[in-house]
Amino acid sequence: MEAILGTCSPVELAKRKSFKWRTYPPDVLPAFVAEMDFTVADEISAAVRAALALGDTGYPHIGELGEAFASFAAQRFGWSPRNDRIFAVPDVMTGIVEVLLATTPHDSGVVINPPVYGPFFFRLGFISRRIIEAPLRMLSDGSYDLDVDALDQALARPDVSAYLLCSPHNPLGIVWNKDQLHTVAGLCEKHDVQLLVDEIHAPLTMPEARFVPFGSIDHVMTERAYVFSSASKGWNIAGLKCGVAIAGGRQCADVLAERWEALLCSHLGLLASVAAFERAGHWLDTVVAQIDQNRKVLTELLHDQLPGVGYVPGSATFLAWLDCRGLGLGDDPAATFLDRGRVALSPGVEFGEQGAGFARLNIGTSPELIAEAVGRMAASLPAG
Ligand SMILES: Cc1ncc(COP(=O)(O)O)c(C=O)c1O
After folding, report:
1. Helical residues (DSSP H) of 23-112, grouped into ranges
2. Which of 310, 346, 342, 312 is nearest to 326 (CA)?
């Protein structure tokens, strides 16, 4: 592993007090929630330390966040959002929820594409929006694609007010291409549906793929869409609480501006995010290279030790979607891995009923810990 990512020493990691490291007893290897095990980028530590040294711990000011995000997006993705359309949010889910509260009727439907990030289901339920599923289609090679007919039908429903697209997709790691984004935009336009695009995993796009920001496509829906991004996944700073919302047009910007007090992020998180977008590109490149290597490591480990598990490496992020249906462990294989193997994966059913028999493994760590996780999974299978 590259030195700037640290060693992922289990002894040091066990001292962490985050959700990943406190949820299970010490004999369980955690590989579930989307936190990475790497050392935080020096640029980010320096920014937070400098603020603490000044006693600069008050409420946030947007400061340089817009410029920092815009120049990151321009360099990485060739997209230059306008500065006056970029807003800070405490985290992506809160941004999504506030926008839905502001722009959609109570009890209306929001379309999502399961299997997909679990909180999409329950956070929207908390605000009395109904989940309308347009499941992705599983292809014969184990990969997935949009089911355009299912999406068209779901968006056509009169009770549907919005569509929440996960791009890149968690847990599948799909990086939607320009044609797919045009299809989505066209359907939202046709059915007059509010579009929200969650691009939180975009900074972790793998070398073979090209991430297309929704805001960069040539379509009228870009004016009417809200896009969400963050440094929280790419640089592993979810605990610092700051994300970015990008308003497509003036009207969207007005909604975000009006809700500013409901959308206050952490000041330290904002400073850390500026440091990440502006100065910590090399760290991000190193993480992407490590995850790229980890996908190959996982493929080989599964081939050798768990050949019954299906794995199609995603083109973004550090989450591996494992098809464990061949193992005979029922709908929740993660329960067996936890009970017998003492390794915690995310149960596939957290991502929708389509996840029955699947589990999600976090590979944002060292190859050694991935090997340990797969070894524990293999050891949890009944002998014979
Ligand atoms: C697709 C997706 N959206 C949102 C989030 C949560 O982000 P935040 O902590 O900024 O709400 C995650 C976290 O893993 C995620 O995978």
Report:
1. 42-54, 65-77, 92-103
2. 310
Please choose, from the candidates 44, 7, 29, 35, the residue with its C-alpha nearest in 3D space to the C-alpha of residue 318.
35
Model pLDDT for residues 2-58, shown as the tens digit of each residue: 899 999 999 999 999 999 999 999 999 999 999 999 999 999 999 999 999 999 999
Find the 328 Cα to ligand 1 centroid distance in Å.
31
Mean pLDDT of 207-231: 98
Query: SS3 breakdown of the chain: % helix, strand, coil, rounded to 5?
Result: 45, 15, 40
Task: Give SS3 for 275.
Answer: helix
Q: Determine whether the shortest distance from the Cβ of 231 to ligand 1 is under 6 A.
A: no
State the CB neighbour count (10 A cutoff) for residue 141: 7
Query: Which whole number is the average pLDDT over 305-326?
Result: 98
166 ligand 1 Cβ < 6 A: yes
